[in-house]
Specification:
Length: about 375
Amino acid sequence: MKTRQFWYPLPERLIAQHPAERRGTEKMMVLHRDTGMLEHRHIADIVDYITPNDLLVVNDTKVFPARLIGKWEDSDGAIEVLMVSAAPESETDASGDMAMPSMDVSNETLVWNCIIGSGRKCREGQVAVFGPAEQLKVTLVKPLSGIGMWKVRFDCSRPLMDLLDEFGRTPVPPYVKREGTREEELEDRERYQTIYAKHVGSVAAPTAGLHFTPEIFAALDAKGVRRVSVTLHVGPGTFRPVKADDIEDHRMDFEAFSVPPETAEAINACKARGGRVFCCGSTTVRTLETVASRERAEGDPLVVAGSGASNIFIYPPYTFKVCDCMLTNFHLPQSTLLMMVSALAGRERMLCAYAMAVRSNYMFFSYGDCMLIV
């Protein structure tokens, strides 16, 4: 298929620059795959569509303040660093490819794959400083494949995550325009994070989950709907544009994931009883479709607990092995995310739904409204 087949016109006014005034009040378009029928509801109405026989799966990764603004130690020139993924201490291979991302993100994790933004030519051994009294230093270790990508080492006066919490910035997507005010940063710290975020490691939020509130979860609990989680640390590749003419030529970035035993057991039990697996967001879908695609012996369960790194790219035609229904936001034209939802609901049907969303003034992208595909 051609990338241009996933283009649609979107007025700039519909790109949400701020979250809804109150979490859990966003609009929700419901797309019925069997008939193509569209409904206009709100996120709290999701309770009406999930039964006790079904299972809700969410991604409990946690966004951290991964964007740093500082200066070069030797020139005072400006530098921006976006921390992408934790890296092993060992050197990358001779090709300069980035090492597989790790789930191990802690104060002791001081070697990272990062995107460096600077007006000067970067060289190995250069040092940049960040924060008041230059409490954090970054040394460029090795260039990696990819524009501006480097392996770096952090040198901290205090625990790394404490310093990031103090003067790091929330890495909201580039289409969310920010002037860098304290008020904007405080808003992003709270709202660019799910209420169930647990495991630190993402530089982008699993945005479908931003809509859930304790009240919605309480209503699902009261109905008898079980909820389990996976973890996938989201990288900037989720926003990387598809530049290839043929979508098959695009390559996804690797992202670290983990599937707990209780989640695997719950999914296999749901499938066995004929229930539906509701995936919250594309990251949950990619995690589960990755583990379901791994080779296994005959008779093994569909989903097996474990961890690893995934670069699965889901586009039409694709046969979903785990995901039956999906809660998702509205995605960029010609994006891998739009291609994924098109694989689930059909490209023409999805583009018709997006045209309706534009006419109905739904808000798009990370801070926007959502769609439930059933």
